[in-house]
Amino acid sequence: MRAVLLAGGLGTRLRPLTCDRPKPMVPILNRPIAAHILQLLHRHGYQEILATLYYRPETIQQYFQEGQDWGVDLRYILEADRPLGTAGSVKNLTSQLQETFLVASGDCLSDFDLTAALAWHRQQQAIATVILARVDQPLEFGCVVCDRQQRIIRLIEKPDASELISDTVNSGFYILEPEALDYLPLDEPSDFATHLLPRLLAAGEVVTGYVDQGYWCDIGNRQAYQRAQLDALLGRVRLQANQMEWRPGIYVGEGTTIASSAQLEPPLWIGQHCYIGEEVQLKAGTVIGDESRIEAGACLDRAVVWNRVQIGQRSHLEGCVLADGVRLERHVQIHEGAVIGSGCRLQEEAQVQAEVRIWPRKQIEAGAIVNLNLIWATSARRRLFSDGGVRGIANVDITPEFAVKLGVAYGSTIPPGSSVTVSRDQRSISQMVTRSLIAGLMSTGITIRNLEAAAVPIARSMLARLPVVGGIHVRLDPLWPTHVLIEFLDREGLTVDRALERRIEAAFFQEDLRRVPMQDLGTMITVSETLPLYRQLFCDRLDRDLLLRSPNRIVIDYAYSVSGAVLPLLLSEFGCDAVILNASLRQQPPTENERQSLLEQMGQVVSAIKANCGVQVAANGERFTLVDEQGMALDHEQLTVLMAEICWLRRPGGTVVVPMTSSSAVDQTAWRYHGRVHRCRPTPTALMAACRNLPDVILGGSGELGFIFPEMHAGFDAIFGIARLIEGLDRQSRSLSQWVESLPSIAHRHLTLSCPRNLLGTLMRQLLESHEPDRLNFQEGLRIQGDRGDQWLLVLPDASYPLIHLYANAQDHQWVEQTLGSYQQQIEQFVATLQSP
Asked: Does Protein biosynthesis appear among the keywords (predicted)?
C-alpha cells in the first residue's frame, strides 16, 4: 500500500517553536509528530510513503533519511516554488498513485484504525473517504455532515458558532481512488476540503465519512501541543514508546542520571543522557528531552523541555514550553503558557510572565521581568476580529498602544502610498482611539482622509466617492456600551471580508509590520465635503414632489448619542417638520432601561403633538426604532415587514434580503407584490454581502439590525431609512397604525438557552440525526420544517456566547408555544445529562 504524508506545514500558530523547524518535526515525547504518523502507517501496512515538503525540507530529510529506521520506503517531493496546498501537492503525484492510496496529515497525533477505514472505503465503493473525528470544540476545524449511510452531504470549513451543526470534523486523513485526482488542475494550489471534496460532491461521486473512535489531536497551537504531550504520557493515544518505564508512569532514557533526593511524580518522560540534580521536583505532566540538565532545587510543573536545555538552580517552570538549547541561570521563573524559542538565554532571576513568547536566540538580562512578547507586543488575543470588526473594553482592551499597532498592522496589508478614510463618533474615547490608529497608519506610508466625527451611513457612503482603498470607523459598540468597536471597511463601504481580517491578524500577531523612511510617511487630509456629498445622494433618491405636497411632522429622538443631527437638515428640504429630542451629546451612553424610558417619552410627545410618527436613532445612525401616531412602538418583525412593503410599493418584483430568523410574514407580503425574499445569516456582514452580490436588491436587513438601501450605499442607514419611511407614508391614505394593522399576522417567537461550547457540536448533530432528512435545512443553523409550510423551528448557535437560539414560526400560536417548549425540554435535558458527574 502507498500513502502520501503531507509534511509541508509552516506551523505559524506554533511559533516560536516552528521558527527553525517545520511543524511535523515538533516533538511529542521527544519524537517528531511525523515519526509517530510514520509508525502508524507502518502498523497498518503502508510501506511506500511519499512525503510532500515545503518549509525547511532538509530538516525532515536529514532526520528520516530513506525511512529504513521506521520500516518504510520514504521518498520526498519538494514544492520548491510555492505551496500547492494539501490537494495540489498530491495532484502532482498522479503518475505515482495508480491505485487506492491514503493521504495522512503530518502535523497531527493519532492512532486511527486505518485498516478498518480502508475496508469501509472499499465496501462503500467510494471515490473518496474522509476519516472523521468527534471533538468537543469543532470551531477550529472543518465540520462535516453525513447522511444515515455516512455519505458526506455538507462541508463547513472552520465554522463560527452560529454555523455549527455537528461535532464531527475532518481529521486530514483521506482514502482516495486515483480518478479522484482528475477533478484537480495540475500545478495549481488547491485543498481537499475547499476544492476537491466539493467538486466530487457536485459531480455526484460517492464521498463517505468514516468516524474513527480512536485518538486524534490537531496540533495547531500551543495549548493543543501541550495537551497532546499529556495525552501521550497518560496513554490516551497508542504510541510506540522508545524508552523503558523506570517506575510506574515514569519513563527514563538510557544514560540519564537522577539524584536520590529528586522528587518525581508520574506521569513523566525524561530523555536520554539527562541529569536531574538534588532536590529537583518534576511534577506530573513534565516532558524532558535528551541531553538536558536540571540543576539542584529546580521545580518543573507540567513543563515541556526539548533537547539540550539547561535549567539553573531553584528555577521554577510551570505549564511552559522550552525549545532546543535554551539556557536558564539561577532562580529563573517561567509561568503558565509561556514559550521560549531555541537558543535563548535567560540570566539569573529573570521572570517570564504567563502567555509570553520569546523568539529564538534572545538574551534576557538578569532580573528582567518579561511581560510582553519579545517580538510581539501581546498574545492575549487569539483573534482580533469578531463579526463586524475589532471590539474590546474601552481603555482596557482597546488602548492607545493597541490602536497604534492595529493601525500599523492594517497599513502593512495595503500598498504604501494608498489612502484610507478614518471616521468616528463624537465620544472622547473614539477620538483617542482614532488618533492612535492614524499614527500607526501614517508610519506605514498610508495617507489618511479624515472624515472626523460622522454618522456611520455617511462614512460608508464616502468610500465609493473618494480615491481610497478602504476605511476605518470607530465608535462605541451598539451592543456593549462599555466597549469600543473598530470597523474596517472596503472601498464600497462594506465590512471587509475574512481574508483581509486574517491578513491584518497575521501582521499584528506575527509582527510582520512595515516601517517606511521618514520621507515616505503618510499624510493626513481633512475631508470637509462629506455632508454635501451625502446630501446629494439622499435627495436624488427620494420623490421630492411627493414629499413637498404632503408635509409631515416627525419626532426624532437621538438618545444623547448623536454624531451630528443631519436628518432634520435633510428633511427640511422636503418641507418635513422635525421635532428633535435629546440631541445633546453625553459621553456615557444611555442604558437599555434609559433608552426604553426615552422611547416611552417620545411616544407621549408624538401623541401629544399629533405627529405622524416618531423614531429613536441608534448605533451612530445605523438603526432606528419606530412608534406610530398613537405612541405605540413597533416590534422588530413589524418594522421589517413594513419597510419591505414600502420598498415593494415603489418597485414591485424586487428582492428583499432578510436574516434567516425573520418571520414568514415577509414572505406573505412578497407574494402580494411578486417580490422575492432571500434569507441569509443574521449578521451585519452577511446581510451587506448579500445585498451587494445579489441582483435587483431593493432592501436588506431587519428591524433589529437596521436596513440597507443598495441604491444609496452598501451599509446600514437609518438616516435614509427614516426618509424612505416618510415617503412611504405619503403614498398611503391611512395612518401608520392602520398600516401596521393590515400587515400579515404571524406567530413568531425567539427563545435563548444556555449550552456550553464543548457540547454545541454534539447537540446539533443529535438534533440533525433525530429528524427525517426531508424536514431539514442546515445551510445556516438547523431549520426543522413542520407539517405546514409556514411552520418551522430554527436552531441557531450563538456566534459569540455559549448560547443556543430557538426561533419558532407559524400561523398557529399554539404550535409555536408547544414546539418551543418541547425543544427547550430536550436541550436542557441533554445539557444536564452530559454535565452530570
From this structure: yes
Which residues have C-beta within 8 Å of that of residue 115, sequence separation ≥ 6? 44, 45
pLDDT at 379: 30
Average pLDDT over residues 542-570: 77
Instruction: List CB contacts of 397: < 8 A, sequence separation 6 or more.
Output: 483
DSSP-based three-state secondary structure for 816: helix
DSSP string, 302-313: S-EE-TT-EE-T
Q: What 3-state DSSP class applies to 319? A: coil
- β-strands 281-282, 299-301: how paired? parallel
Average the pLDDT over 319-338 and give the result.
93
CA distance 398 to 387: 17
β-pairing, 333-334 with 351-352? parallel
Residues of the chain with CATH 3.40.120.10: 389-527, 534-742
User: If DSSP codes are grouped into helix, strand and coil, which group holds residue 126?
Assistant: coil
Question: CATH class for domain 2-218?
Answer: alpha beta
CA distance 386 to 396: 17
Q: How confident is the model at residue 491 (pLDDT cuts 50, 70, 90)?
A: very high
What is the CATH topology of the domain spanning 389-527? Alpha-D-Glucose-1,6-Bisphosphate; Chain A, domain 3 (3.40.120)
Phi and psi angles of residue 266, each rounded to the nearest 5 degrees, phi first: -70, 155
Q: Is the pLDDT of residue 538 over 80?
A: yes
Region 534-742: CATH code: 3.40.120.10
Q: Which of 592, 414, 704, 500 is nearest to 487 (CA)?
A: 500
Looking at residue 377, what is its pLDDT? 32
**pTM beyond cutoff 0.85:** no
Contact 685, 385 (CB under 8 A): no
Average pLDDT over residues 724-736: 87
